[in-house]
Design brief:
Strand content: 5-15%
Number of helices: 14
Strand order of the largest sheet: 2-1-6-5-4-3-7
Number of strands: 7
Order of helices and strands: HHHHHHHHHHEEHHEEEEHEH
Radius of gyration: 20 Å
Shape: globular
């Protein structure tokens, strides 16, 4: 294989990896509770893939999920050995139970809980619970990650679920704060308010956008609050059309046309800042999302919430 062919092969592998990257990022972020650690872990997964013969991998998505999960498990164990906690204070979790009513209540309470809920679990419990209950990965696929039998993995997840439920009872949700932050984000882009964007974004924030929404040659990934704020005006139209939504159980926004979503924005929020967001327009990626329109109630003390209600009513253009 000549040098040019080698580069073409690497480009192909990188493109295939890029299709899975948002999901791997979400998985690692929920396991580790830190967008920064998640990004490092996903990058490590890419390095491992780059040094592997991708042609021998039958199921790339499954392979990447396993590798990323193992890398997260190693980080969680190392963190536990050092008795460290992640800096980022909140994380999302959806959990299931045998009763649909309990499932809905638990998803609402645990899903918006502080990361301390997961921090009370052992690394193995955390991995078993998040992989199965959040990402719907079968226990027989989780078992090799944890190097346990399928039955032992099921019992581990059940124990973690009970502990998470107890922890969630004392973990105050911050739905209003997260919703207000997303409203401020959309309004800042719509109004081209750079200063407002800088107030919302973490200094090292990352923006991901599907190529179809960008001009030729524009980078699909931008890092740094100032760089993101500088280009924000180019996304004013999607911000005008966006409505709040629950996307895979997490607060986000979407644009709908003719009854179908054509754009979705997912967020990683921690410590009252947006650490990353992903603007999704690719039909295949959109088809894998579960999007539920979600009204944002007005907070009397939050002017941004009032502006959002006016926007939804069509009073702001």
């Amino acid at each position: 294989m000549d040098h040019r062919a080698g580069n073409d092969e690497i480009d192909t592998i990188a493109a295939r990896f890029g299709q899975h990257r948002p999901r791997l990022q979400a998985l690692a972020a929920r396991l580790l509770g830190s967008p920064v650690d998640a990004e490092d872990t996903v990058q490590d997964a890419w390095i491992r893939l780059a040094h592997t013969d991708a042609g021998t991998i039958d199921n790339l998505g499954g392979w990447l999920t396993t590798v990323t999960s193992r890398l997260c498990l190693d980080r969680l164990r190392a963190r536990q050995a050092r008795r460290e906690s992640p800096l980022d204070a909140d994380n999302l979790l959806r959990a299931n139970s045998d009763d649909p009513a309990d499932d809905a209540a638990l998803a609402d309470s645990v899903g918006r809980a502080l990361v301390v809920v997961l921090e009370n679990l052992s690394p193995a419990e955390r991995v078993a619970l998040v992989l199965h209950d959040v990402f719907a990965i079968p226990f027989q696929e989780i078992a090799p990650v944890l190097e346990r039998s399928t039955d032992a993995t099921k019992k581990l997840a059940a124990r973690a679920r009970r502990r998470a439920r107890l922890g969630a009872e004392n973990a105050p949700p911050d739905l209003a704060g997260r919703r207000a932050l997303i409203v401020r984000f959309l309004n800042a882009i719509r109004e081209g308010d750079t200063n407002a964007m800088l107030d919302i974004l973490a200094p090292d924030a990352t923006r991901y956008v599907d190529p179809a929404l960008l001009a030729p040659g524009q980078n699909t990934t931008i890092r740094g609050a100032h760089a993101i704020a500088k280009e924000a005006r180019s996304f004013s139209r999607p911000a005008h059309e966006a409505s709040p939504a629950l996307i895979d159980g997490d607060l986000g926004a979407f644009v709908e046309r003719d009854g179908r979503p054509v754009l979705a924005i997912t967020f990683m929020i921690a410590q009252k800042f947006i650490h990353s967001f992903d603007v999704i327009t690719d039909p295949d990626r959109l088809s894998r999302l579960t999007i539920a329109p979600q009204a944002i109630p007005q907070d009397p003390d939050d002017a941004s919430g009032a502006r959002n209600e006016d926007y939804e009513a069509g009073q702001i253009t």
